[in-house]
Amino acid sequence: MNDTHFSADLATGLILLNFNGRLSIWKQLALQQADWDEPAQVVLALSGPTFAESLHCFEVDGRERWRVAAPPNFEFQYLLAPAGEAIRLVCSGTSSAGDTLDWYFKVDKQTGTLTRQGRSY
Fold first, then answer.
1. What is the DSSP letter of 71?
2. Are 49 and 64 in contact (CB under 8 A)?
3. Is the pTM of this model over 0.90?
4. Exposed e or buried b for every residue in 106-120, given b needs 16+ CB within 10 A?
5. What is the DSSP letter of 70?
6. Which distant-in-sequence residues (6+ apart) come within 8 Å of 6 by Cβ?
7. Are the C-beta atoms of 35 and 44 separated by less than 8 Å?
């Protein structure tokens, strides 16, 4: 089992990850939310000046693996990170009837591909 400690300070944008005794600290401008994805051993972060515009994936040493924008016709809402499970992303979109609906998206941690999975209630 990995000895991992993670924290993110939204006010300063500092992300701290102590992974197996190796400390990495980096800064993400306009950080909205960040969390550790234990199964993939990466950090996912949402950033943007007023709302989340980009989803980032960071390696354990703080290097950015990829960055993506929200899927067409959707906006990032938040990351859902159950302890020990893969992070899921919640995005909102507008239906043809004009209703705003929230959806779960699976995040491919290797490529940044986002796949809509189902409704988030």
1. P
2. no
3. yes
4. ebebeeeebeeeeeb
5. P
6. 15, 16, 17, 18, 35, 36, 43
7. yes
